[in-house]
Amino acid sequence: MNAPNKLVLIAATAPSSWASYLINGDLSGYEDKAEIKAMKAFEREMGGIVSCEENGFSHYHDAYHLFPYGADCETYIALVSPDFEAPSHWFFQGDEVTAKRAHDADLEG
Questions:
Q1: CA separation (Å) from 104 to 43, 51, 57, 71?
Q2: CB 74 within 8 A of CB 16
Q3: What's the rounded Cα separation, in Å, for the pair 33 and 76?
Q4: What global pTM score does this model have?
Q5: Residue partners of 91: CB distance under 8 A and separation at least 6
Q6: pLDDT digit string, tens, across residues 72-105
Q7: Cα 65–chain centre separation
Q8: ∠ at Cα 97 (12, 42), nearest 5°?
């Protein structure tokens, strides 16, 4: 059972080029309106993104449904409340929510 006011970590992969916006809220230098729309949608899905770490190139990342292009990616970490409702394309693993494409979850068994 979750303690009151406990936050839960979630993680998801998305393009590294989005880090400036996702971590610092800085949209300077971004011109592609479709990409900006995808970044903002991913941010809404994730909640409060607090950090990221390098993940390498991935053709299928967790923001692929918003921006269907392979990219060098980061794993973005967010803190959310325990009652956070994950998008339908995410799956739960233990007490943490891990963003995964349904296809990847099926492959892992």
A1: 21, 23, 16, 17
A2: yes
A3: 22
A4: 0.75
A5: 98, 100, 102, 105
A6: 999 999 988 878 777 766 544 434 444 444 444 4
A7: 11
A8: 35
